[in-house]
Amino acid sequence: MRIVSDSTADLPISIIDEYNVEIVPLRVHFGEEVFLDWVEMKPEKFYDKLTSTDILPRTSQPSPADFVKKYKEIGEGETIISIHISSNLSGTYQSAMMARDMLPEMDIHVFDTKLASMAHGAVVMEAARAAREGKSREEVLHLVKEMIDKVKVYFMVNTFEYLQKNGRIGRAQAMLGSLLKVKPILTLEDGIVTPKEKARGRSKALDRLVKICLDEFGSKNSVKIALIHGNVLEEVLKLKEMVEGVFKFEEAVISDLGAVIGSHTGPGVVGIVMYPHNDYLIS
Amino acid sequence: MGRDILKGDMLKEMFYGGTFLLREQKEIINALNVFPVPDGDTGTNMFLTLSYAVEQLKDLDGDRIDEVASCVANSSLVGARGNSGVILSQLFRGFSQGLAGKKEVDVESFASALQEGVRTAYKAVMKPVEGTMLTVAREGAEKVTQEGERDFIYFLENLNEQAIKALEKTPELLPVLKESGVVDAGGKGLCVIYEGFVRALKGDKFELAEVAEKKEGEGEKGKKIAVKGNKGPDSSSFQKLSYKYCTEFILKGKNLDSEELKRKLNNTGDSLLVVGNGSMLKVHIHSNNPGKVLEICLAQGDLSQVKIDNMEEQQETAGLSQGEEEEDSFIKENISSSSNGKDKLQEIQVIAVSPGEGITEVFYSLGVSQVIEGGQTMNPCTDDFLKALEKIKAPKVILLPNNKNIILAAEQTRHLSYQEVEVVPSKTVPQGISALMRFNPLEKDLKEMAREMEESLSQVKTGQITFAVRDSTYNELSIKNGSVIGLRENALEVVEETSSQAVFSLVDSMIEEGDEVITLYFGEDVSEEEAQRVARDLENFYENVEVECCRGGQPLYYYFISIE
Fold first, then answer.
1. What φ, ψ does residue B507 adopt, rounded to 5°?
2. pTM here?
3. CB-based contact B358:B375 (threshold 8 Å)
4. Domain span holding position A215
5. Residue B308 belongs to what domain range?
6. Nearest residue in B to A166, CA atom
7. For the domain that residue A178 is a member of, what is the CATH number?
8. Is A180 in Cβ contact with B550 (below 8 Å)?
């Protein structure tokens, strides 16, 4: 059994290597220049470029052929579980579905996580861990479905500009036009960017992120946590300290927002990915 | 000549007298403000509450004392303005319940009705404070009950005297009054009303026309309270209406029973509301057959002020203008096709009270659906809230009073509206804005949303800069008429020569470690250049603090300041 995903899972390289996940990259375009997400364009280089140019980066999904190539490399006879970014945010899932249909002889299962970045990455990571531990195909498929329902992500963006210009603003459109400077706190619902609330100032937004997760998960239940950030390491480390005092968990993965996700959110994103540490997670 | 029995016509005269004297003395009452800030409006609020009630009396035929009292009680409930007006309306409500079923009364019954009024008012106020109108009402009623007087003129003269005695003691009960050297303003207002009762009973004539007409000329504070709708995108959501006609009228008759009428009308539509009792009921219903509704009510009495609106037409009109607005809006082109944000209806809408145009715009930009203009200089009454509620027609609504003196009037609407209403008790504009940061129009649970918004009120600090309207001392601060003063959470904190100096002193006394955003909402008497300069200076002075400057447009207050 092999787990395939795409580069927007924003999984740290160490986790990709450890769990032997196959990644199909999306592309990020600065004008005429094209780069493969996480392969030719790592987060550090991306945020440097983003802040030093006026060009608004665009992104493009992998083609069905990219997926066909990857699936064929893995080879017939393997069960492939292919887990992808919300189909409301990217056409990646569509391409994977088309590739699956082009390979009827293979056992391929394609999922729309309705999530993005490390929230999507958490689904991939838990599936890969279960696969490595020798769980059955049915068990892993069940786990993926459970995870898609259970993973929550709350994040602050510094500005609406990028979400808006790239057409990913979703329901948060209702938040536009504020005459005061506010830090929007957003989530993903049904795979769509959805407003949660606003905060005045970034430290208040961090407080609220923790409080929102506390309301959702409580402090007594065992949880798993990933923290995401777009080139604001200092702040995400502060957030890590904050969650350490509140939640019951073993270790928080810290993950950079990659170039494709960063193109849609802009720099300065900080967020929390959280899900319950339950029976369906075999560890 | 004595008078042992009181009838309805005489009680009417007494209320006219009370209203007339309140009008004459309201400025004196307004000036009895704890802090010398220019928003003393207790006298105005009590006068407007009472005159609203008294105006309804002119449509009342008959001479039953219970009907007169219940007419005043019901209409003052709707017309209640400011905390003093709300307490007054509750005194009347209990008083009228005490007189229920009586055609005329003797002194003893009248006194026990007064006591009933006091009980009702104490119950209505969540934390009754002694040294206020409540004390004056209670002590007055208790003393005269003990005396056992039988003649109404002596009785009411005594009531007035006892009330004045209680009023004079209010500074002993409430330290803030003593410090400021004033008696309680609401208590004073009640004494004035009692004085009007006495004079009317002694034969002074107060023409209703005169009382009402003078109200029209209410110049200095006569800023009409306007209810305005948000014309921005997402202001309203389309709903399929199950009932098409909004039907409203007043039903007059004998011994009308609101509960019985509710049962009879129950099957004719929804959003049913029947307010009042006895001789006059106000009826509101959404129905597909307004004819049937009117027919049922005609069997009970006479109809007046009948109003029937086709709500579908209203929605279409609103929808049209909304569409145009959206075309012009710069966001249009970027809406992602799969996520247009309108696939869920906005469940909860917010009505906020705004003291200035700039604040109004900020409110709209943060998702408020309807603004009621008012605040320091003019407290909106319960009826203004009811009108705003009627206008937005949303089933679930949150009210933001944004002023400590408006909270009670807002809360009173909860029992009078067919809509589900929650009040988030914001005492200042910055608190209202803090609550709006939490507001999520997609939330479904009204109580939960209101709870979250209320929780956020404590997360912002409010400063206000205004000027003194009289010489005084407070907390060892000597204040000259006209000097600039700074309030911290509605309490006096600094006294300065200029508004910018006051901003600095106040911010300095309020700011703490961890604060990161200061917002200045400058009033109509401050220029944008000056406000920007003050904002820049503050930003340069405090490291790691962002200062935002925003036009508030409010009168009398140079600045509202939020620190968070």
1. -60, -40
2. 0.79
3. no
4. 152-276
5. 245-315
6. B334
7. 3.30.1180.10
8. yes
